[in-house]
């Protein structure tokens, strides 16, 4: 075989190898695309399943909360109430929605929605008393009318850990001095326990004031709306609720509730108030270490029914070292 034949043979082999390599590359690319598409489809399916699972889980959680409330109400003899308290309900007939106001539990956000639906401007909502505005458009219903409204509407309330709500009320109402009425109240409470002193109200003063107020009035019904037990504000054992939102899982709960109530595109998840910078655990240690064990026991007894009705625990607060005197 001469040299020209050998060169010809090698060229043919090289072309075949290149052709084989090109086919392999194409096959590899096709395989890669197939794997990528498969992964994308799997991811999308996973996200869809995850969202469906989360929605179902949230619905199951709400069912548990409602069942727990019903059980606790039987234990507590309907929370000690015989009549529904209608003072703190808003009924939007246009949206078939009934909401009970639990102050210091996202009320500003829900006032924003209800007052927006009523046609008030952003300026009015932000600068005029929200309850005053709301009552002009959503008049208070009597007990019978309210119960009928709840039967034919989607009804809900937002709850919060009783002691977190108490700390929030203390900071926002009595410490911040944003409101002239509560600034004067804070000073009056301080003077009650420090008649010759010059200073500002402490959380311990606030707790003792609540304890004394309950003792003086022989019950919790006269407490200020910002720290009055939810049991008094919304009489949950006598009302019919479709959904219980917890502030601790607020975003997920509200998203589930919006779907259940067919309010998509209507409710705005507005964050009206500023978010507290300090962690709850830090605040709990700061405030609950100021009070004595006796004050702690008395305070818990005042809010015990809220703890029971909505499945909260005060264990971590009891573990905080207390003041000796």
UniProtKB/TrEMBL annotation:
<keyword id="KW-0808">Transferase</keyword>
<keyword id="KW-0333">Golgi apparatus</keyword>
<comment type="similarity">
    <text>Belongs to the sulfotransferase 2 family.</text>
</comment>
<keyword id="KW-1133">Transmembrane helix</keyword>
<protein>
    <recommendedName>
        <fullName>Carbohydrate sulfotransferase</fullName>
        <ecNumber>2.8.2.-</ecNumber>
    </recommendedName>
</protein>
<dbReference type="InterPro" id="IPR005331">
    <property type="entry name" value="Sulfotransferase"/>
</dbReference>
<dbReference type="Pfam" id="PF03567">
    <property type="entry name" value="Sulfotransfer_2"/>
</dbReference>
<keyword id="KW-0119">Carbohydrate metabolism</keyword>
<dbReference type="GO" id="GO:0008146">
    <property type="term" value="F:sulfotransferase activity"/>
</dbReference>
<feature type="transmembrane region" description="Helical">
    <location>
        <begin position="21"/>
        <end position="46"/>
    </location>
</feature>
<dbReference type="GO" id="GO:0016051">
    <property type="term" value="P:carbohydrate biosynthetic process"/>
</dbReference>
<keyword id="KW-0472">Membrane</keyword>
<dbReference type="GO" id="GO:0000139">
    <property type="term" value="C:Golgi membrane"/>
</dbReference>
<keyword id="KW-0735">Signal-anchor</keyword>
<keyword id="KW-0812">Transmembrane</keyword>
<dbReference type="InterPro" id="IPR018011">
    <property type="entry name" value="Carb_sulfotrans_8-10"/>
</dbReference>
<keyword id="KW-0325">Glycoprotein</keyword>
